[in-house]
Amino acid sequence: MKLNYIVVAIDSFKGSLSSWEAGRTAREAVQAVFPEAEVDVFPLADGGEGTVDALADGLQGTIVPVVVTGPLNTPVNSRYGCVPDDKLAIIEMADAAGLPLVPVEKRNPLHTTTYGLGELILQALDDGCRDFIIGIGGSATNDCGLGMLTALGWKFLKADGSPAGICGGNLAEVAAIDGSGVEARLKECRFRIACDVKNPLYGSQGCSAVFGPQKGATPEIVKVMDEAIHHFADLAEKELRTLGATVPGAGAAGGLGFAFRTFLGGELTPGTELCLETIGIRQALEKADLLLTGEGRLDRQTAMGKGPAGVAQLAHKLNDKIKTVAVCGCALPDAEQVNRHGIDAYFPILHMPMTAEEAMEEKTTRLNLKQTVTQVMQLLK
C-alpha cells in the first residue's frame, strides 16, 4: 500500500500519555517504516477530561493556573488553556466545579456552585481572550449557572431586594434579575460549549431528575431542585426574552447549557465535532491516505461519538479512499461496534500479560504503542 500522507489524531491514554505525546510516539513509528511519507499530528479530544491539555498543546498555547472558588465555596487550584494569537480560552468546567472536587459525604447539589467557572472566564478575559471553548461535563452542580453568572456581574435578588446566593439551593428564592452590572467585555465574546447531553432543563428528563442523584440528591431534593429550576427558567426567559429551557442540552451540567445559551448566547455543540473544528483537521483528512487514531480504552461508548469514532467518521465523509486504523490500551468485547462507525480496524497495544498499573506506566505505554504502530505499518507497507 502506498502511503504518501498520514494523519495521526490519537486521544489521550489517560494516566499514561497525553494526546500530543501519543501522537508524536505514533509518528516516530510511522516514519521508521515510511520515511518518505508526510505525517501530521493533530491533538484529539471530545470536550471532556483532557480537552484543555490536548487543544492547548496542539494549538501552541499555554496552561494558565488560577485559584478559584470551588463547588463548596472554598478555594481550589484550577486552570485553563490560553492561545493568545487566537484570543482563545479552553476551559473544562470540572476544573472549577467538578464532582471529584466534592468528597462523597459532602455531595449535595443544593450546596454547590459554579461561581469558580465564572472566575475562570473573568481571568481569561483579563488575559485577552474573547473566543471560548468550554467543556461542561463532570459537574458537581445543579445551580443553573447561578454562581457563574453572579461572578460575571448578574445580580439575582430575593423579593426583598437582597442577594439570593450562588448555590443550587438558592434558585427558588430568585425573584428578580438585574443585568446592569454585567461584565461589558462579554459582548465581545463567542462561547462554544462542548455538550453531548441532549436533556431539557427540567421535568422527568431534566438535569435534576437524571443527573441529580449522582451528585448526591435524594428523591426529595430532586423534586425541590426541579421546581426551583423551573421557576428560575421561567423568570430568566421572561426577563431576557429568550426561550431556552426545552432546547436539547439545556439540562447539561445542572443547567449550565441553559445558562450559556440564554444569558451568553452560547452555541451548544457535540464535543468531538467542536474539537475537530478547532484543530482544523478537515483539509488534512481530505488528502490523507491513512488516519491513525485511538484512545486508552475502546468500547461501545467510543462508537457513540467519542474522539476516535468522530474523527474516523469525518475522514470517511471527506475522503472515500482513506483507511482508518485505531490503537488502544485495551478493547472491550463490544468494541467491534466501532467498525460500523468509521474505524476500519483496531489493535490493542499490549504484547504480554501485565497488571493495569504496569500497562499504564508511561514508559511501557510508549513502548507498546510504538511497537504496535510499527507492526501495523509493516502490514501496510
Automatic annotation (TrEMBL):
The keyword Transmembrane does not apply. It comes from the Bacteria. Pfam families: Gly_kinase (PF02595). The keyword Transferase applies. InterPro entries: Glyc_kinase_flavodox-like_fold, Glycerate_kinase, Glycerate_kinase_RE-like, Glycerate_kinase_sf. GO terms for molecular function: glycerate kinase activity. Keywords: Kinase, Transferase. One of its GO terms (biological process) is organic acid phosphorylation. Belongs to the glycerate kinase type-1 family. PANTHER family: GLYCERATE KINASE. NCBIfam families: glycerate kinase. This is Glycerate kinase. It comes from Selenomonas ruminis.
